[in-house]
Design brief:
Helix content of chain B: 25-40%
Largest sheet of chain A: 4 strands, mixed
Helix content of chain A: 25-40%
Low-confidence stretches of chain B: 201-215, 227-240
Number of helices of chain A: 10
CATH topology of the largest domain in chain A: Alpha-Beta Plaits
Shape of chain A: elongated
Mean pLDDT of chain B: 76
Strand content of chain B: 5-15%
Strand order of the largest sheet of chain B: 1-2
Strand order of the largest sheet of chain A: 10-2-12-11
Largest interface: A-B, 100 and 86 residues
Low-confidence stretches of chain A: 346-373
CATH class of the largest domain in chain A: Alpha Beta
Shape of chain B: rod-shaped
Oligomer: heterodimer
Radius of gyration of chain A: 31 Å
Largest sheet of chain B: 2 strands, antiparallel
Structural class of chain A: alpha+beta
Mean pLDDT of chain A: 85
Structural class of chain B: alpha+beta
Number of strands of chain B: 6
Amino acid sequence: MNDIRIWSGPSASNKTPEPELTRRSFLRTGAAALGGMAALAAALSPLRELASEDIPNLDQLFQKHYKEMTPAEMEQALERIRAKVEERYAVRPHLRDVKPMEGVEFVYALNLSRCIGCRKCVHACVAENNQSRSPEIQYIRVIEMPRGTLDVEKGNHHYERPTVPDANHFYMPVQCHQCANPPCVKVCPVEATWQEADGITVIDYDWCIGCRYCEAACPYWARRFNFARPNLPKDQLNSNMSYLSNRPREKGVMEKCHFCLHRTREGRMPACVEICPTGARKFGNVLDPKSEVSEILKTKRVFVLKEEVGTLPRFFYYFDERYPNSLDPEALAIADRLRAEEGEAYGCLPDASGPRKDFVASATPKWWNGAHA
Amino acid sequence: MVHPSESRQSKSPVRSAVAGWSLAIGFAALAIGLLNTSRLASIPLKPAVVFNPAALVPGPRRVAMTDPAHLMVEGMSENCNACHQIFRSSHPAGATLNYHQDVRLNHGLNNRCVNCHDADNRERLTLRDGATVVFSETPQLCSQCHGTVYRDWQRGTHGKTMGSWVTGSKEQLRLNCNQCHDPHSPRYPAYQPLPGPDTLRMGDQQSHGADEPSRSPLQRWLKQVGTDRETKPTLQGRQP
């Protein structure tokens, strides 16, 4: 039994004496504690560089989620934001919370035959939505694509040319597609982003924790992160703003295109549609059968980007039937070349040298009378 | 029964002194090390892009001729007929103009003034059947040749709509043909593109040729190891 040691509580019989606090041990322990605190303070010292503006105040800290706020609480939040904007930009903003309209579902359509790649939409969007100028945040990317393919990986959005359009390319602007099945909403761990009744996916910038999961989930690279405090010159602030759209953001939150909801929910056009010099951008209510977007969906050959990922975008691309521009000899030459190459690849179209050698007579369609042979 | 503190008694005072002092020295070294590390890295900001703000003023692309038709002549607004009743110009194909020097006629086979302008009343446009229309009714004139585009324009699938997306609202403004296209040279002019994005993600932005598809580091690496994307079969199936 002696080799089994069981703790049976303190007993007066074998009580150990308290370790004596000697001068030596006191110095030792004190030095270790002091060193530990110094190390902790040193490790925390970068906090001194945190700007006071980036620290939320108590009101902001205890603000409820957008969907849980009562009208009075919302008004309180709006007033807090108004005061902050006024303090930072010296402008009293026209800030409100615009709700979706009844019986409206927004859809966007973009005519790839008409887009010339001038990037006016990109910068009109930046000006409208109070994005950071430097570091730069832009919601729209205009991709210059070689003619004859829709493979986005062959595109280039850094094109710099003296003039656009270039005859060998077409231009495909990409922005938030306001998906009906949005992956960004699914991955948000705090429900800071959600889809509204009119189809616009919005972000509560006061609720976002900046984890950037949504940025990774988006197949269209539509979401942007504020790595630094947005840098916006005072005189360039757009004072027409709403809670869920273009009010100034803070450092560390996500943002993205919201179809200019502070404009569109009041019947106006988004800034990118308004500025487009060619009318390539079309916007409207898909529930209205007479709207322009409904007409496009009915009469044009539309497609969506990355259909296979199942996001069900509300952003449609289309081409006009007229191709190529019959007045442009360069474009005509390219079209001829593409047609010839296609004919060669599929073996179904004759070229100048006659039918292909592997063209089997039995496979010749009835209408083929050998006129080109 | 043995008290657990029994084992503590076996620890020598020398060992505990060494442990205590090394802990203190270690913490002190850590503090010095942390204080000596560089401050929060600040990323140098590039200046924001600059461009002419006039590029962002929304509105019709050009000022179309309005009704009643008039022209500014030496600072005075004059009716067309004020001159054209005196000067009866001839109408050869591709006429060189003595007066309307700003007109550059580049409209394909449609190269006679009187194909569109009424020969007798220069404040009207003429249709194929001899009827005349005012300048604000240009679509009717253009539709005689550009039927498919006119059909699209009527539906709203061609052309620019401004102001409001609400169908038929008072704020909605549908632009006419000649508010975007110059009727004398209807092809869209080339635009100078506004500055491109400044993204780190796409890698080297300096060396890009017109036909190089991408400059991302990954693609460059793929090229180095010989997996050239260009040799992969594409949607057109052009590879033999």
